[in-house]
Amino acid sequence: MTQTIPFMTNDVRAIRGAMLNFSADPFVAEDPAHCWRYESDAIVVMSAGKITAVGPATQLLPTLGDVPLSTYPHGLILPGFIDAHVHYAQIPMVAAYGQQLIDWLNRYTFVTEQRFTDAEFARAVAKVFLREQWRHGVTSSVVYGTVYPQSVDVLFEEASKHNMRIMAGKVCMDRNAPTPLLDTAQSAYDDSKQLIERWHGQGRSEYVITPRFAPTSSPAQLHLLGQLAAEYPDVLIQSHVSENRGEVAWVSELFADLPDYTAVYEHYGLLRARSIYGHGIHLSERELRAFHDRNAAIAHCPTSNFFLGSGSFNVLHAKSKHRPVHVALATDLGAGTSFSMLQTMNEAYKAAQVCGTPYPAPYYFYLATLGAAKALGLANKIGRIDVGMEADLVVLNTHATPYLDYRLSFADSLEELLFVLMMLGDDRTVAETYVAGVPLKGSEVQAA
């Protein structure tokens, strides 16, 4: 059914094409096919950064009047992709050869991140990062800065120029890293609190409390970050958990009085709703139950997991109906190897195959849209195409390349179309990215 709300400003625009929208979690639904809706010819109307009307083109065309309408004859309109775990400061080192997690951090990551003492260097990286996100259809992301507060300031400043929903935080680590990258327990608390006061809730900016991972934070630092989380219960929390077996063993040595990796975050008050932890490959049943009970989320980072040889996260196991855990899809650049959420879906499918638990194509798109929004506690703002939601959209071009066009001529179902898009698609497949109703990729569209 078409819904409308009054247009409040004169900056109205509309787009037309096929549309796919999600309404519920197919992993846990009794009838997964009812969790999404496909419209072969739809119109989405946007004004003042919000969706003001959505429905079949036949119903909405007579209501548009002189509203500018961009038509995508081979387009598939989706909620904008949400990247739930990404290190913008690492994009200068994507595709750094060799090493597993700990050695990779020491050899590449910690060296690169020291350059972010220079705010203008950080700003230049932030601009490239945001540009690439838009080129790949990403409209919101959960981002790690570096230990230096200015690395977060410049990212928020650049994203705010385009009214982008960015969630980001200063990395906190006071041990087991090079001296120039260390803060202290108190400075991590103080710097993070100042950044919260400066940025959280300003426009579409959200702050994220960000201990890098348990081995680089002392008990004293984790205690103070847990205190900060208690002071700001609506602020997101992000970190890493159970990415690599060597890392898991290291955590058991550093926190020998606690039963497992997840228990570290539980103990310090950092596992709760609106907390999201990258990887989670080697979590025990007790840990998955803790994630479920505390309404916490896991960011699935398949390209990174394969690149560092960490393992394959089993999404179906995490989403088991007896204790489903929120899961969101994520690129995890710079161990991740692509800005593309389509290519990330590609690798997620391979991870599911390795685990022996593949799932249908629409589920992957759910993890990158409404599933991620639910994981972040933002399903009332992003992740769906509905009246009143923020106007973050991606339009995919099913004719983007000659071979994609050819291959899809043989697709006989929505599921096959989506599967081919996620296996063969990349930045060329993104026709346009709308952030708060404004096109940012800049691809040509056909005027209606």
Provide structural commentary.
By secondary structure, the chain is an alpha/beta fold. Helices cover 35% and strands 23% of the residues. It has 16 helices and 18 strands. The strands form 2 sheets. Strands 1, 2, 3, 4, 5, 15, 16, 17 and 18 form a 9-stranded mixed sheet that branches. Strands 6, 7, 8, 9, 10, 11, 12, 13 and 14 form a 9-stranded parallel sheet that branches. The longest helix has 17 residues, at 119-135. It is globular.
Fold blueprint:
Elements: E1 3-4, E2 13-22, E3 36-47, E4 50-56, H1 57-60, E5 69-79, E6 81-87, H2 101-113, H3 119-135, E7 138-144, H4 149-160, E8 165-169, E9 171-172, H5 185-199, E10 205-211, H6 219-231, E11 236-241, H7 245-254, H8 261-267, E12 275-279, H9 285-293, E13 297-300, H10 302-307, H11 315-318, E14 326-329, H12 341-355, H13 361-367, H14 370-375, E15 393-397, H15 402-408, H16 414-424, E16 430-435, E17 438-439, E18 446-447
Parallel strand pairs: 2-5, 6-7, 7-8, 8-10, 9-10, 10-11, 11-12, 12-13, 13-14
Antiparallel strand pairs: 1-4, 2-3, 3-4, 5-15, 5-18, 15-16, 16-17
Helix pairs in contact: 3-4, 4-5, 5-6, 12-16
Number of strands: 18
* Distance separating the two termini: 23 Å
Beta-strand share of residues: 15-25%
Relative helix content: 25-40%
Please describe the structure with a list of short key phrases separated by commas or semicolons.
18 strands; 35% helix; alpha/beta; disordered N terminus; 9-stranded parallel sheet; 23% strand; 448 residues
